[in-house]
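If it is no trouble, might I ask you for a protein's amino acid sequence along with its backbone structure tokens?
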Amino acid sequence: MMQDNGIDAEVANRLIEVKIGKSSLRNIRAGLMQLAYALAGRPDARGYLILSDAGITNSRIQKESQRAMGVFSGDIANRITICTEKDGRLGGILHSIDLDTKEVLLDVLEKERTRLRPKVSRADASFIVLKVLINHWLTNGSAVTSEWLARTCGYSYPTIANALHNLGGSLIERQSDRKVRLRWFPQEEYLRLVAMSDRARATARYADASGQARSPETHLRRLEMINPKGVGIGGVFGAKHYFEGLNIVGAPRLDISLHACEIEADLDFIDKLDPALRRITDPREPASVVVHNIYHADPLFQPRESGLKWADPVECLLDLHEARLEMQAKQFLEVLRERRQHTT
């Protein structure tokens, strides 16, 4: 998407630079300067700097833009528009934006978001496709198109087709309308999913270093206050959401699912959650907080009343296995399978 002139996109006579996430004033100046360079050789063009979720007030952006444009010639300054975007709403600072230009800018912004999302290695496609298929079988059961799988998993059609081929015709039911689904619950493949999950989800474990560990419930309440982007609650908390009768008293730890395809999702919130948490690498050492990355394009999160969201049921199952709560994982899986049978 990057153009020869260094800007992110060019549409007709619009030169567009995009800054996503928290922006410092220095980044704003750099974006304006990049546009000014490009516009100097394009007297017919207009420049647009898009600031998405910048974390800076419009008044500060306006003040900084006026200072920065003071060093440009009047012609170039008049051809630059700074735009702020939040939750799909786009507005111009200093200059207004017409509807056609808004559509162009939002399209460019979405393409830039897609470009910046972390790419998942092709080697993990089998894990993601299998996990999505099993989750859909347990929670819905209807056949789906390859296009739906590609969109949900975040892979191209050939990669999806290859993953389905590797699962085999005996397991994958192909219908006359070209939709597919699992014929039955794939026990052997499910165990393979469990075995692969720690590596495929890049699990990160944290333990208390202060000697005064907070409870998982306290960590959960604190996480709700922080409300980081791209986060779902899994593990025991998530499993008990889907099945209140889970045979366990309390949660031994807080399992967090982090949507790694969300460009603003990162582990910075861990320090805010609890400064006493430290990363541990020994899987035998008890953890207070565990973070699992989700790499499918649609995180499959479910709404949650107290903010944040719930991880999907299969994600919760994998968390229980990873925590060595095998009895609870078996009980939860049996309940999910029974519910599936009653809905077919």
